[in-house]
Design brief:
With 346 residues, the protein is mainly alpha-helical. It is built from eleven helices and no strands. Keywords: Membrane, Transmembrane, Transmembrane helix.
């Protein structure tokens, strides 16, 4: 009974974190859309810089002051070689994805995010972290076809916003692959709080270039009407999302998070329709159903691959242990034999 109760408690706790993550993620996305497209603050670079400065400060307090998580104590060389390239890609991804909110509906943006598995897979194949397989490539083509159908069915499609969103996804896929190459593969894993501490300052520095080139003069000549409390609430929401991810890590499997992400995207489509009155056509939904099918097949393939690798490692460990045992038997036998011979000689 106690073991069963512990299992039920763990399941309830895990899915509570999933619900919290979904709720916070949906809130942040809708908040950003409202702030950029409807509140009179159409400055995505400035907003992203504000997020990064806030997250840098919070990350510093969490790591250096409160000691919630440890620091890796990276040297300047390691920071420049490992963290800064990731910061450049992350800054570009955040800037362009936030810019897309000015032109595209939340629902359509979520539909385009179905391309992420395919883009990450393509970057992995290009950089040698993934092996090319025709079945995976065909599945990615299915997802891409679904996104094309979504675009054809989009009632208010703006090409500038579409290009920004697609390029943002490419940068994000490259960032995820680069994290695997520069950090995870070298034993430098980071939780979300450590990422805030190390990556956010790099993002902030990288965003200074497009900020002064594109938004600084406009803000000086035509200052936007905004309330500091709104920006503070937006930054707190962004930090809460990172904290939700931090709490979620280790509580669920990657497959559960992917399924929850698909559910979250469907919820955002309907929230976008009811909150912002963004039109959603049948062709949109038909194309997104194609995307979800492709993502589901991709997750299944990844799960089977992980199981296969785990089984292979287990077999190798078993065979190694068996070889050690068999290799020890003659040694014991020889030892006994030698002991007998020496004893008989005496």
């Amino acid at each position: 009974m106690s073991k069963g109760g512990d299992v039920v408690g763990q399941i309830v706790k895990a899915y509570t974190f999933v619900v919290i993550w979904m709720g916070v993620s949906i809130s942040v996305i809708l908040f950003n859309k409202w702030l950029l497209a409807f509140s009179g603050f159409p400055f995505p670079i400035t907003l992203t810089m504000w997020h990064m400065s806030f997250c840098s400060a919070v990350g510093f307090v969490c790591v250096r002051v409160l000691g919630i998580t440890k620091s890796h104590n990276l040297s300047l060389r390691d920071y420049t070689q490992r963290v800064l390239p990731i910061g450049v890609l992350y800054a570009a991804s955040l800037w362009l994805s936030n810019s897309a909110y000015l032109y595209l509906s939340v629902s359509f943006i979520q539909m385009t995010k179905s391309l992420m598995p395919g883009l990450v897979y393509a970057c992995g194949v290009a950089w040698g972290t993934e092996q090319y397989e025709w079945s995976s490539a065909a599945n990615m083509a299915l997802i891409a076809f679904g996104v094309v159908v979504c675009a054809l069915g989009e009632a208010n499609l703006v090409m500038k916003g579409l290009v920004q969103q697609l390029v943002a996804l490419v940068f994000e896929a490259a960032r995820l692959t680069l994290v695997q190459i520069l950090m995870a593969a070298r034993g430098l894993a980071m939780n979300p709080l450590q990422s805030l501490y190390y990556v956010s300052p790099a993002c902030f520095l990288c965003l200074l270039v497009p900020f002064f080139a594109l938004e600084f003069r406009t803000i000086l000549t035509s200052p936007p009407t905004f309330y500091p409390s709104v920006l503070l609430a937006n930054a707190l929401a962004a930090f809460a999302l990172n904290l939700a991810v931090f709490l979620l890590i280790g509580k669920t499997s990657a497959l559960t998070m992917n399924i929850a992400g698909v559910i979250k995207d469907w919820m955002l489509i309907f929230f976008s329709f009811y909150v912002f009155h963004a039109p959603v056509t049948r062709l949109n939904l038909f194309g997104y159903a194609f995307c979800c099918t492709g993502v589901g097949v991709y997750n299944y393939q990844k799960l089977q691959l992980l199981k296969k690798k785990a089984l292979q490692k287990q077999k190798e460990a078993d065979s190694s242990g068996k070889a050690d045992m068999e290799g020890g038997r003659p040694l014991l036998a020889n030892g006994g034999s030698n002991g007998k011979t020496e004893g008989s000689r005496d």
